[in-house]
Amino acid sequence: MTGTQYGNGREDEVLAQAAVDALVGQLALAPKPGLPDPRERTARDHSDLRWSAQALFPGLIAMAATARRTGEPGSRLRADLGAIGRSTEHTVALAGGGHRGALWTLGLLVAATALRPGAGPASTTALAGQLAAHRDRSAPRRPSRGSTMSARYGAAGARGEARAGFPHVRRALTALTTARSQGVTEPQARLDALLTVMSTLQDTELLYTAGPMGLRQVQAGARGVLEAGGTSTERGAAALRALDTNLTSHAWAPRGSGALLTGALFLDALMS
Fold it and tell me: Can you give the pTM of this predicted structure?
């Protein structure tokens, strides 16, 4: 898709479909430690999430079209994206729920891509950061889990990650490129990218459910898999199984890392 010019409704649909495909691809990846995937123990949840992922499509089309018409990453566009995002959240909830973090990430990246078609990942994530820096004055005032954890522990959270230009999305893209160059399978490359994000991300969902010590435990476990050679090695695969067992037993879900991997897969598809 490199260099595609998003100049009409059809191209907005193509862009939105690429985003939904990235989310579905992330959902299909296994074994993801602590996250829903196609394995039997989460089969029902996984089926529901795959279904509700499709409900993002109309909202993402609207975000792309709005960004293209507006033309600049200003406060007006930020407000419009916020309104579309809240409407889309409602639609997704009716379809089964989930994907709030992915919608935030994909919405900003889709809008940034529509604003500057053909730009590389670094420019796109930087532009998304400019968009996120504007305050959405119509957003609900009630504190969320993420904002509460950010205030309590000083974690960047989803908003901080976006305003910084999605550094963990860029890290995931680098991890994908590195793993592929080493000849591993595509699922293994994607799992290594996920673990790269998990190893350093201050996931506010994990802070809420596991606390600071639990978050550090998850980060250390992800680093352990990578230090063992990644998911393509015998030691790395064993470390991944141990990490998954640990997260599952505690009901710890690194959802922020999953959402950011989705953003990386979206940008990766645009470069293909």
Answer: 0.92
